[in-house]
Amino acid sequence: MIDVVDIHDTVSKLKSSGEAFALATVVRTISVTSAKTGAKAVIMADGSISEGWIGGGCARAAVLKAAKEVIADGTTRLVSIQPEDLLREQEIESGTTQNGIKFATNMCPSQGTMDIFVEAILPRPELVIFGASPVAIALATLAKPMGFTTTICAEKPDHDKYHFGDKFVEGLNYETNTNNKRYVIISTQGRGDQASLENALSLNAEFIAFVGSRKKAEKLKSNLASNGMPQEKLDTIKAPAGLDINAITPEEIALSILAELTKVRRADQYQSFRSDDS
Predict the structure, then answer these.
(1) pLDDT for position 271
(2) DSSP letters of the chain?
(3) Which CATH code fits 126-269?
């Protein structure tokens, strides 16, 4: 029997390292199965099992496929592995999804049924904020309860303006080699706008937005283009940042930016939910 403590230790270590993985848990078994209710396995993004046990080859392929899917889109899957004749009785084809359950055929001689819940354990996305404007400070305050870790890039004296921040970088130059999903907001109010944009474009970011007018952003992009910045990179900059909610105060503007970030961040999951419901 797999030591549950070992599983929990592995989960804790992987969470600390910021590595994405899936946790598969057997939630129901009927008849004879190799794994019993409560069995767990830690599955990595490449489909390898790092720790644990959720059955032999009869269950492995379907569960590993589901694990890769949940890591990719951040959702969950309930996989029901059943004998072929049982699926036929229910008029269900292997590989189909109904009512949120993905069905697969159990080809093992035991002919048992296993229901396995597969969930993604993903590192918190990183929100990189350039500047120390009132909007930037409000954004850092609201970002944490929305599920982001925050990296603040600002001059050293400006760090004290922030009440919240997971990581502080002195100045407007940030280098990182982590694989976390990253979203970047430039809110410098004229103090290093171009330098911040240039650095932001060097990062592996899912989304880059500039807090300022469209006219100002176009002028900054024109300057960067004249310095050799490829146009396809410049086209990734969203300006002005945030959804149009008639925001006026710094807090309202920060809220509009987080609403936009949520829309971008959850796009794949939303499409996945729509596919499952269709």
Answers:
(1) 57
(2) ---HHHHHHHHHHHHHHT--EEEEEEEEEESS-SS-TT-EEEEETTS-EEEE---SHHHHHHHHHHHHHHHHHS-EEEEEEEEHHHHHHTT--TT-EETTEEEEEE-STT--EEEEEEEEE-PPPEEEEES--HHHHHHHHHHGGGT-EEEEEE-GGGGGG-S--SEEEESS-------S-EEEEE--TTSSHHHHHHHHHHS--SEEEESS-HHHHHHHHHHHHHTT--HHHHTTEESS-S--S---SHHHHHHHHHHHHHHHHTHHHHHHHHHHH-
(3) 3.40.50.720
